[in-house]
Structures are given as structure tokens and as C-alpha cells.
Amino acid sequence: MNANEIDYHIYGEEMQYVEIELDPQEAVVAEAGSFMMMETDIKMDTIFGDGSNQDTGVLGKLFSAGKRLLTGESLFMTVFLNVGQGKKHVSFASPYPGKIIPIDLTEFRGKFICQKDAFLCAAKGVSVGIEFSKKLGRGLFGGEGFIMQKLEGDGIAFVHAGGTTAKKTLAAGEVLKVDTGCIIGFTQDVDYDIEFVGGIKNTVFGGEGLFYATLRGPGTVYIQSLPFSRLAGRVLASIPRGGKKKGEGSVLGGLGDLLDGDNRF
């Protein structure tokens, strides 16, 4: 597998975007909806799958696209090819506040496992597939699901994480316990499983969910402080129900609404 060698620069702090520099005939593939801007002489095209096996015929292309369908992603990806004579630039934006993390697959022996919605874009030639869990517990209770994505090849891929990111290097046998949604990804040697929190008080009153992930080294783990599922949950919880506003910024809350006449009987 020989992915295109691309240069890049990441801009911004909390709402980042990555600008990729393409030499003539170099290309990058991206998830639908991540495109931000591009210069002239860059050709945009929609392809089946990730474009890593375009020479394998119709069945190969369908299989590549089918792998993405299993992860809940679109059957199609977008490829941006520099058809001009000089260097050109194309940029991709993060979907919500957080960080864009470059993953050089050559540093991880050609494979990196990540949450299914973390992938943003990659050099053409990087394979975006599925990583099946070998343990039933992950599938039943893993939160993000039985299937994770795997990025394979010898190029650079970019993943997106919410909030602040942490990179942990685990020694052999070292264990890190993480909220299932807070995992961005990890290297292929890390053993990943799901554990029950335990204890009736934790289960009923803990508010942190019934399960967490255990990551056992050796390997490297990337963690995010604000997974999108948590952000979406907070937003949904703040939406007024029945057309009534919430009593934000007031100690009285709903009682304050009652006193100021907002509630009608």
C-alpha cells in the first residue's frame, strides 16, 4: 500500500481546520460534509468506499463501500485530486469544537483503531475499514458499538476529537479505565474491553453510565474530554419541553417562572 505523501498545517485552537498541500496528481479522501475550501485546479469527485482499492474491480469497490455501511457511514467518500501543474491547497474543518489529530500510520505499524465517527480525512491510499470486536461484551455494552473503524496503510490520516485531548502511552500490562465515549482511538496492540461499573449506588445514582472501557497496554491511547454524544445530550437536556423556557441563571428556576407569571393554569 503506497499512500500519497501529503504536507499539511492545522489552524485554530478550539474550532480547527486542516489545510493539506497537494503536489500535482496527489489526492486526499474525506468524509462527506468535512470540506471547507480549495484552490483552483483541484478536481473533486465522489467514489465508492475509501479509494484504496480502485484497481480491484467492481466487487472490490462494493466490498470497500460495504465496510463503511456497516459502521453507519455513507457508502461514498469524496476525493480531491490536484490536476494542475503546481502545489495546491484544500482544507477540511472539524464538525464541532475540539482538536484535529494527525495520525502517521507508519509510526503505528500501519494500523490505528478509532471511534467510527472520528475519521475526518486521509491521504489517498489509506484504507478506512472496520474493526470487529472479538469479545461479546464490547458489542452489547460498548456504547459506541461492536464495530470500530480501522485506518490502515502508510500515509497520514486525520481524526477529530471533542474538547481537549490527552495522549497516554501505556506500558505492558498497564490499565487505563475510560468512559466509552471518551475514546478517540488506540494502537493495534492495546487490548480493549468493557467492564460493569458495579455497586447499586453507582448504578442508580452515579450518573456516569453502567459501563466503562478498560484499555490494557502496551500501546498508545488518545482520549477526548467532550465526546459529541455527551455534548448532544447536554444540548437536548436544555431544550424547553412543551414550549416553556427553562429557568436558567436563577436559583429559583421553575419556581421563578411561576412567580413571574409565565405559567398559566
Tell me about this structure.
The protein has 265 residues and is α+β, with helices and mostly antiparallel strands. The protein has one domain (7-233): 4-Layer Sandwich (Double-stranded beta-helix), CATH 3.60.160. Helices cover 16% and strands 40% of the residues. The chain contains 5 helices and 19 strands. It has helices at 57-70, 136-141, 200-205, 228-238, 254-259; strands spanning 7-11, 17-22, 27-30, 35-38, 42-48, 76-82, 88-93, 98-104, 111-114, 119-123, 127-132, 147-152, 156-162, 165-170, 175-178, 183-187, 191-196, 211-216, 219-224. The strands form 4 sheets. A 6-stranded antiparallel β-sheet has the order 5-6-3-10-13-8. It has a 6-stranded antiparallel β-sheet with strand order 11-12-9-16-19-14. Strands 1-2-7-4 form a 4-stranded antiparallel β-sheet, with no helix packed on it. Strand 1 (7-11) and strand 2 (17-22) form a beta hairpin. The longest helix is centred in the N-terminal third of the chain and has 14 residues, at 57-70. The chain is globular, with a radius of gyration of 22 Å. Residues 139-145 and 202-208 have low confidence and may be disordered.
| Corresponding CATH superfamily | Mitochondrial biogenesis AIM24
Report the strand count. Answer: 19
As a whole number of angstroms, the C-alpha radius of gyration is: 22 Å
Query: How much strand?
Result: 35-45%
Q: How is the largest sheet built, in terms of strand order?
A: 5-6-3-10-13-8
**Average pLDDT taken over every residue:** 79
Residues in helix, % = 10-25%
* Total helical segments: 5
**Main sheet properties:** 6 strands, antiparallel
- CATH architecture grouping: 4-Layer Sandwich
CATH topology: Double-stranded beta-helix
Helical/strand content category: alpha+beta
Question: What is the chain-wise order of helices and strands?
Answer: EEEEEHEEEEEEHEEEEEEHEEHH
Shape: globular
How many angstroms separate the termini?
69 Å
Report the CATH C-level class.
Alpha Beta
- The low-confidence runs, each spanning 5 or more residues with pLDDT under 50, are 139-145, 202-208
Number of domains: 1
